[in-house]
């Protein structure tokens, strides 16, 4: 009889708000557990573990280094500000800890390459924490986009992710601080929009990226909202808008020669256990143009585990394969992260160069 697979043992660096959600996912995932939490304040780490239902055996530490030094930690989840990612991923990789990293993964692709090299050279799995990629809805939507009859040739994509969290957020959140998360809305909400566009195009990078005029900044020069247009040599086009200044919106629209897909809650489903999306195919105006036919159809994809738990489950499965069976690392996740970062960099460069087109180079 085969030995039962041991759960992957996570350490968490920092007590960020998002870590509450991901630690819950680690508890819900069937192949993971939490063994350590570290903060610059021991008291804060102790309270975080207590308030978020950590196993009683989980250790609380008053430093990040102590988590990395814990021999029981297999992998670390890093929800620290982006400016600290390079430092702490490299430190974790030296201690042979697999990496689940919050997005944006780096301030630029040069930093990300150092992060990925640290992981690769130590035989460690890397994955960014873009949760919606792991919802079963995502693969179902891709099936529709791959249907040559119902969807046809991909023509254009538009994505929006925005939210307005009010004045306190705009003054005090780390995502508007140039020394912590200098990419602002582009790195936060824009990351999701760019990933959605890449996902729809099977991760084919565009030829050029052009930021649209009138990006908005705070007084420290951090991006609060921006938009961009992406162009491929075969005629595909994509646009996106990301913002900290407009009502919560999480849309992807994908248009093909024969069909159309739309999802209204791609980042975080409105309901945790079901993800809907809408499609139309070979649509025509009805008689007298008083409607359309066939009518759009709604697909509801159920899930027993929330998408963040499915992310942890997939990551933990990859780590277990490496740890217990000597499997190689899964290369698609670092590659997808790098392509997303390249496009984030290109949008930023276009803004800085007066909204000129930027040629994309992998």
TrEMBL record:
One Gene Ontology molecular-function label: nucleotide binding
Domain Gfo/Idh/MocA-like oxidoreductase N-terminal, first and last residues per copy: 8-127
Gene3D superfamilies for the chain: Dihydrodipicolinate Reductase, domain 2 (3.30.360.10), NAD(P)-binding Rossmann-like Domain (3.40.50.720)
Domain GFO/IDH/MocA-like oxidoreductase: 147-261
Matching SUPFAM superfamilies: Glyceraldehyde-3-phosphate dehydrogenase-like, C-terminal domain, NAD(P)-binding Rossmann-fold domains
Taxonomic superkingdom: Eukaryota
Protein family per UniProt: Belongs to the Gfo/Idh/MocA family.
Name of the protein this chain belongs to: Gfo/Idh/MocA-like oxidoreductase N-terminal domain-containing protein
Protein species of origin: Fraxinus pennsylvanica
Taxonomy of the source species: Eukaryota, Viridiplantae, Streptophyta, Embryophyta, Tracheophyta
């Amino acid at each position: 009889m085969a030995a039962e697979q041991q759960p992957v043992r996570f350490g968490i660096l920092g007590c960020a708000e998002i870590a509450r959600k991901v630690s819950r996912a680690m508890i819900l995932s069937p192949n993971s557990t939490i063994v350590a939490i570290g903060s610059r304040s021991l008291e804060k780490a102790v309270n975080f573990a207590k308030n978020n239902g950590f196993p009683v055996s989980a250790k609380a530490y008053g430093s990040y280094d102590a988590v990395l030094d814990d021999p029981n930690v297999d992998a670390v989840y890093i929800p620290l500000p982006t400016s600290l990612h390079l430092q702490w991923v490299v430190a974790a990789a030296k201690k042979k800890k697999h990496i689940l990293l919050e997005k944006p993964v780096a301030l630029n692709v040069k930093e990300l390459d150092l992060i990925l090299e640290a992981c690769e050279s130590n035989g460690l799995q890397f994955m960014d924490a873009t949760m919606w990629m792991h919802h079963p809805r995502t693969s179902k939507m891709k099936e529709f986009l791959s249907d040559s009859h119902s969807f046809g040739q991909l023509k254009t994509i538009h994505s929006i992710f925005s939210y307005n969290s009010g004045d306190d957020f705009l003054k005090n959140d780390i995502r508007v601080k140039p020394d912590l998360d200098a990419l602002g809305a582009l790195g936060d909400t824009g990351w999701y929009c760019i990933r959605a566009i890449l996902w729809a195009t099977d991760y084919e990078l565009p030829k050029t990226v052009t930021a649209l005029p009138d990006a908005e900044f705070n007084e420290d020069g951090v991006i609060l909202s921006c938009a961009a247009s992406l162009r491929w040599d075969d005629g595909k086009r994509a646009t996106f808008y990301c913002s900290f200044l407009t009502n919560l919106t999480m849309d992807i629209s994908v248009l093909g020669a024969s069909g159309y897909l739309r999802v209204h809650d791609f980042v975080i489903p409105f309901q945790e256990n079901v993800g809907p999306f809408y499609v139309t195919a070979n649509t025509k105006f009805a008689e007298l143009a008083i409607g359309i036919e066939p009518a759009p159809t709604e697909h509801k994809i159920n899930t027993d585990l929330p998408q963040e738990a499915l992310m942890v489950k997939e990551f933990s499965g990859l780590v277990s394969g490496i740890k217990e069976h000597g499997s190689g690392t899964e290369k698609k996740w670092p590659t997808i992260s790098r392509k997303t970062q390249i496009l984030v960099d290109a949008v930023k460069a276009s803004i800085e160069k007066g909204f000129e087109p930027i040629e994309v180079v992998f």
